[in-house]
Amino acid sequence: MPDLVAPKVLSWASEIDAAAVAQASRAARLDFVTGHVALMPDAHVGIGATVGSVIPTEGAIIPAAVGVDIGCGMVATETTLTAADLPDTLDALMPLVERRIPAGVGKGHQDGAIDQTLHVLGRPRTELTVKQEEKVALQFGTLGSGNHFVEVCLDERDRVWTVLHSGSRGIGNQLATQHIVDAKNLMKRQERTLEDPDLAYLVQGTPEFDDYIADMLWAQAYAMASRARMDAVLTAALFEVVGAGERVRMINCHHNFTQRENHLGKTLWITRKGAIKADKGDEGVIPGSMGTRSYIVKGRGNAESYHSCSHGAGRRMSRGQARRALSAKSLTEAMAGRTWNSNRAAALVDEHPKAYKSIDKVMADQQDLVEVQHTLRQVFNYKG
Fold first, then answer.
1. Are 271 and 62 in contact (CB under 8 A)?
2. What is the pTM of this model?
């Protein structure tokens, strides 16, 4: 059950930094924020708006609350394979994934098969440069960096799942960044003072608002289609290694997005920054950190959370803090028994499970938000 941790701020987090509550409070005090800000169990400080927050607004949107990775989210696919079908190790899968799902900052690939998908998606409202047009095609179906990942997991029945985390890549970042800058400049021209410049907003009915919405919706569609493509490539590679297998079902969900929904008797913009839509029956994917469990869930439609739930474990340490406090050796120990990028352990210390909150505690905190369908344990992890 949530706690009222500040005026107009409800929190489901049993572990939360005071700075995150203060940040959420600044958003809650904006005139166009209708109702309370909801903090999910994985909430932590972000840029402008708290990661793991749900912000209901009427007549305006904060571009930084959606964030720079518009449409970032999860995709998971259940397969017909079981643990008994898998080889002793999935070492043979790693080079296939590395080659077919490029990862890292700015990485892309040439693949003529994506042209039809991109044609259906169209283009954003903002006119793209030649370089950006190239980026749209090159980075579609690529993973990215940071906490983006590919996994093969087993559920409590020993059924095999694939799990993948990614967003709208470089083009989404560039579009979002430009609109955030535009919103800040608009605030300056209008001489509007904000507690945090990153809370700069766009007012519905203005050209700036319409342009942002069009670009944002395009980036969300791009992210979802890109995840679906990588998921298809991943399952095909897995089946190639195993020599068998079929897809049963796919769950593809955003956790950095905004859309119009009906709450509090009104039609509002519901911005989820690091949160999943969890209306009654909605399926979602909530990943843990490296070496920990992930969850397939169904939403309970909790009204106080605006039909939302957490998007993961949530950081306990910043990346810098993790690199200073944790070691490659302890990460290697935490990942024992799994196929992973062990040759990059030193570079992945900031993704150490101890840098994150306990995913099991996060799930315990949100029993009134979601119902657990399946609990997944990793056997393969490929990090961006």
1. yes
2. 0.94
